[in-house]
Amino acid sequence: MSEEYVLETQDLTKHYGGVHALEGANFKMRKGEHVAIMGDNGAGKSTFVRQITGVEQRTRGKVWLYGEEVNFAGPLDAREAGIETVFQTLALADDLDVPDNLFLGREITKFDWLGPFRMLDYKAMREATIEGLNRTAVKIPNIRNSIRNMSGGQRQCVAIARTATFHSRLTIMDEPTAALGVQETAQVENIVRTLKEAGEPLILISHNMRQVFDLVDRIVVFRRGRMCADLDIKSGDYTGEDVVSYITGAKTGEEFMEHAL
Amino acid sequence: MSEEYVLETQDLTKHYGGVHALEGANFKMRKGEHVAIMGDNGAGKSTFVRQITGVEQRTRGKVWLYGEEVNFAGPLDAREAGIETVFQTLALADDLDVPDNLFLGREITKFDWLGPFRMLDYKAMREATIEGLNRTAVKIPNIRNSIRNMSGGQRQCVAIARTATFHSRLTIMDEPTAALGVQETAQVENIVRTLKEAGEPLILISHNMRQVFDLVDRIVVFRRGRMCADLDIKSGDYTGEDVVSYITGAKTGEEFMEHAL
Amino acid sequence: LEIGATFSRFDDNWLTVLRNGMVEYAESIDGLTYQQEDASDDLAKQIDQVTNFVAQGVDAIIVNIVDTSAGAAITAAAGDTPLVFVNREPDNVNELPPTQAFVASNEIESGTLSAFEVCKNLRAEGKGNGARGYLMNGQLSNQAAVQRSKDVHDVIGMDMCNFMEIIDEAPANWSRDEAQDLMTNWMSSGEPFDFVLANNDEMAIGAIQAMKAAGMDMADVQVGGVDASQDALLVMAAGDYDVTVFQDSVGQGTGSIDAAIKLANGEKVDTKVYIPFVLVTPDNMNDFLDKN
Amino acid sequence: MADTSHGTGGLVFDKSKRSWPNELNIALALIIIIAIFEILGQVLPYMNGQSFLFDTRDRFDSVFNEARLKIIILQVAIIGIIAIGVTQVILTAGIDLSSGPLVAATAMIAMSFAQTELVNGNPNPKAVFGPWAMDLPVIIPVLAGLAFGAMIGAINGTFVAYFRIPPFIATLGMFLGCRGIALWWTSGNPVSFPTESYSFIGSGMMPVVWFLALAAIFHFILRYTVYGKHTYAIGSNEEAARMSGINVKRHKVMVYMIASMLAAFAGIVLSSKASTAQAGMGEFYELFAIAMAVIGGISLTGGRGSIIGTVLGAMVLGVIRSGFTYVKLDGSYQLMAMGSIIIAAVILDQYRQRNRA
Amino acid sequence: MADTSHGTGGLVFDKSKRSWPNELNIALALIIIIAIFEILGQVLPYMNGQSFLFDTRDRFDSVFNEARLKIIILQVAIIGIIAIGVTQVILTAGIDLSSGPLVAATAMIAMSFAQTELVNGNPNPKAVFGPWAMDLPVIIPVLAGLAFGAMIGAINGTFVAYFRIPPFIATLGMFLGCRGIALWWTSGNPVSFPTESYSFIGSGMMPVVWFLALAAIFHFILRYTVYGKHTYAIGSNEEAARMSGINVKRHKVMVYMIASMLAAFAGIVLSSKASTAQAGMGEFYELFAIAMAVIGGISLTGGRGSIIGTVLGAMVLGVIRSGFTYVKLDGSYQLMAMGSIIIAAVILDQYRQRNRA
Ligand SMILES: Nc1ncnc2c1ncn2[C@@H]1O[C@H](COP(=O)(O)OP(=O)(O)OP(=O)(O)O)[C@@H](O)[C@H]1O
Ligand SMILES: Nc1ncnc2c1ncn2[C@@H]1O[C@H](COP(=O)(O)OP(=O)(O)OP(=O)(O)O)[C@@H](O)[C@H]1O
Ligand SMILES: [Mg+2]
Ligand SMILES: [Mg+2]
């Protein structure tokens, strides 16, 4: 609707058979804003992301991107509209190596007039890959090894590097640092700060309270498939404990009272 | 070798083709001890676990369990020897539901004289499942749904509940709380404390400094495939910062100096 | 009047000629509904097709049996419905009930005629004191193939033809293309040979193509097959092919439909009608040019 | 408001919307196909209003055309027996191509121990062995056949499980091997004239009895026993099954053995039904058995499906075949139409499944 | 000490132990099989010390038995062309069963536009169409055949990608469909007597030329182009490929079309080589094409393998066939031996692969 919002959803809902995984989410985020989504396991956070990025078709509801109503048929559409996503499942092709995965779907190519048979520029991709990985501080002994053989954290860093390498109108990261070590986490947090400085909006899903308080402007809490709080943490009104009580259901944001369970 | 150790390894090594993922690990843990393994992504922690539990065959080295040399041909052997493991990859069968996964490989059965065709006691398994899951505080709307449709945290809780439901001589958890929410993490930490009280030994792999300091007696740090520190944190001599400097390679434990890179 | 027919397979060249002839003939008879099915060489499927026809209430059934040793099972499946076996002789031919009959050729003749003619030609060429050659089998699971190969061995077993020696025999599964490859494989050993016998024309043509591609003079080699297909006769006309055997499709086709109609009307028919094979050589080939 | 009888709390779970079993879709496809034939019967001018399923001869005792109902299932019963085994192999994410030739080889072997000495007073012209092997009790050919099947299955399973040969190749090797054995056994000659008790195994509606009985047994086993659970687990995620302590290798050998024994039994029933055994029998049976399973909703990537689905898949093929004869479709069109209907049935299934989610 | 030229630091990475390409194993298997035949030739008494590969006639111009070398590859060239396409389908974790019947149908269609008016001065007895379709330029039958292949491929691909029919079923449907089309086109009659230019396509060693040229082209395409990368990605993890923004559906249709066009081309070459087209042609070609790919190390679960592997897999089959003729193995043993050798080749491959890890 309004152009001032990067993303806006209205009554966004997803049912899986009998499971009401997401119910009537009204979400808004302003330009340049960094928003965290928190909530228990199974609260519907990833489901929310999948609806926005067109991975699944929503049961009902509407989504606007930069004021324009969108209805993505698939993740390809979402990416073309400028949404870059690190999915919780990472979405890596196990048999391909690191550069292949990093550039999957947008390979650097030569002789583009050859259409689908245009040639891959392996060298350029390899170089860009090493650069991208360096930003996450991860160590990968041989990037030509297939992703199948990477450790949990290495896989996650590849997925993050993929997103961080490309410019976007909205970045979404679903638990990006879950499997990361201390150093790598710090680096990824730096990447997020860089985005903030560049004014690029971000949705961060995380269970890490410290991280969220360090990085974002606002926290949206999901519980049992519904939004149940929307906390402007830069105001300094909220502590970690407050957030936890929203997550556990001890408290509910006023504007969400009517749905309280 | 000595019976006083629950687990002992000598020169445990694993090479994947040219990648030296684990190199000469000499690891010991006493009865009742809880030990954490920390280290960067790709440091070889999960590789260490895979060698101990027989998931892979080691390149060289020896392993003793309760003083007895063991050489597991597969994870089945390890389990039969009393090692319960939560793998980083979780090892869940996606098409089966929660109780099926919890009891995979050790179903509750009736008419056992029927051999492989003995009958499943679905009711008993379902009840035990709900009990097991309650201990992790995770919420799963319908446990008869297949695991494929569970959220990241729900999957992890199923894997943890599986381990926690059975008694063992050694429990290993590879980043068990990586995907968990605040409440669920607290519950899993409680499970670990219960083990401690019961005197059951545990190896915990985690990147979470607070958690490690809260829960375990000793931290072993891996770097680039080698053990590089062994810190008795109950002594109070070490802080989180110390541990980080071992992880990043700023410091190296004295006894490991010779291998330092 | 309704007739259902089932054939052992639709993609067999000679049976196709038979089949299409029968469709044409059936169309020329007023008030006859004629329906044909493909058993694709599956005996059980054929038995089920017969059962299906019975469930359907057809007035008569025509069967080109997949396996001649399953006559009893087909006979039983038909029950009271009139049935005519065509082309292949079921093993229970002597015990057929009065509602059943058969119109066929005796398979033993075909292979024998062809091999014996080749034997005579070799003698005439003065190779009577020793000739070597190859034998190409059809599908080894097919009874016509087994029978025709056995015929060849029987002929070579006779005193008059025991100068012939088979260097090797191998299946080329009725197919021209496989026969080409098999022949080329044989020739790659460099052994000289004087004749090639094949269970059908297609394989014989494949062998001839391979030999010509290798630059051999077809006058030096006797080639014998079975079927007298049009392709084969044209190869014969070109002087490359020596002996084949003709089987009368029109005779068998119209004969079986006539018998089926009579049985359906409750009339009596001869239970056995044999239609003989005829030897075809360059001398008499013009009589057969437009027959198959 | 949340029904949590089987959950540990959490979101709203609306039990009334429980997932609609896959098998219902296939049953629906089956009914639609039957309806289409019924309508075609009314519409096509040359059919004179004959009915596909119902009896138009106005009898008292039945409204159905029993002969048709019987043949619909009879003609898929034998391949159906194979499909029960193949289903289990596919559930483990494997495949079994050897079943067709195995049917032929078993038929040859079993039949040669089931021959009668005298045929209409003459000595049996197709006798394979000497008089010692004549008129043996029926149990001997049956056991010989099943033992042969078990052996082939054990080899298949060993290659797949212990030597890690892709199932496609291991069973393709056996496909060639069994065809070879069938040809070699009597150098291509058919084996005929079984004893009466052997003939009984496949006579009349017996194949249907075997098929349904075996389907029921294995349905139960897959659903309610450890064997079944492990079969699904291996197909769902073999690595996870291994890590959970299932003896994956031993289990796979067992699955392949059971599948091959079922195929061997199908060979016995087939040879009994046809009163003869022939090396070329069972051609393409492996493909149709797999097709039955897949039409019945068994996922070729393993872990999903049920025997009920396979039985319904078999029925779909049976109805199609009878239907074609019923509408007098010419043989050369039958294949094309069969291909289209199979695809249509699966499209329908997919469509319903997607709409459910 | 760590060679990190292609990494971002970290563990020791010993480049000298780089993974040993899979294809080498198959090449090794090939050499072993050849050696076995060579030894058999020396050992078997009735072989008179004939050599398998070498020329024993003591000529100057060659030490090899060229005729044998040629036929080894010639006899697998046509199925090999199909295998190049099937390889791509399998790389996407699909399967194509329709290629055998497609070969037959294409052969019939192409050949009926490639007939000559006069055969030895007589009118063509097998003429399908009237005189207008006689002695057409060779490009017309070729294009007709390829267009037909493209159409079948597009249908296969559409069913698989857009209707989500399991590839096994979609292409089994087409298997039946194409067999039907082949039978229906001339109601089972063979089509013969092509023009000279059409005959040239499959004459002599031309099939080998086509096979190797196409293999080289597609090897390059799979390895160095976006098309290839996406093919591997889809087979490796379709969901990930989709989430990464690859248009999976469109790509799959393209892959199935290419595969079917290659099979169609194989049909053209085959009918040209045999100078005839028959509805029963190409039986079991689909199985052997898949076998070549799998022997060549293409994983049926997708994402792994290469065209070089497939070419080597084809060579294995070719050597086996020639070898059997060479040692004069009896027909009924050939199938059994073939089955065993295929399995042995793959065991060897598996064994080497495991030892490497
Ligand atoms: N395809 C599906 N079918 C059925 N239920 C599903 C499906 N996908 C998700 N669910 C259910 O929907 C609920 C929300 O899942 P979601 O993945 O959004 O949780 P989440 O908030 O991301 O949790 P986590 O923090 O563990 O990642 C869960 O209860 C889950 O079991
Ligand atoms: N099968 C394999 N083949 C080749 N390399 C492998 C294989 N498995 C692991 N590696 C490599 O070995 C190293 C150690 O991996 P490991 O999984 O043990 O790391 P980790 O310490 O558990 O890391 P994380 O914290 O990210 O889980 C990594 O560099 C990884 O890429
Ligand atoms: Mg999530
Ligand atoms: Mg790890």
UniProtKB/TrEMBL annotation, chains A, B:
Entry keyword Ion transport: no
Segments forming domain ABC transporter: 7-249
Origin superkingdom: Bacteria
Pfam families: ABC_tran (PF00005)
Gene3D superfamilies per the UniProt record, alphabetical: P-loop containing nucleotide triphosphate hydrolases
Entry keywords, A to Z: ATP-binding, Nucleotide-binding
GO molecular function terms noted in the UniProt entry: ATP binding; ATP hydrolysis activity
Residues passing through the membrane, by range: none
Protein name: Monosaccharide ABC transporter ATP-binding protein, CUT2 family
Source organism: Cognatishimia maritima
From TrEMBL, chains D, E:
Membrane topology according to the record: Multi-pass membrane protein
Residue ranges crossing the lipid bilayer per the database entry: 26-48, 69-91, 138-161, 168-186, 198-222, 253-272, 284-300, 307-327, 333-351
UniProt keywords, alphabetically: Cell membrane, Membrane, Transmembrane, Transmembrane helix
One MF annotation (Gene Ontology) recorded for this entry: transmembrane transporter activity
Pfam families: BPD_transp_2 (PF02653)
Signal peptide span: none
Primary localization: membrane
Subcellular location: Cell membrane
Cellular component terms per the entry's GO annotation: plasma membrane
Domain of life: Bacteria
Protein name: Monosaccharide ABC transporter membrane protein, CUT2 family
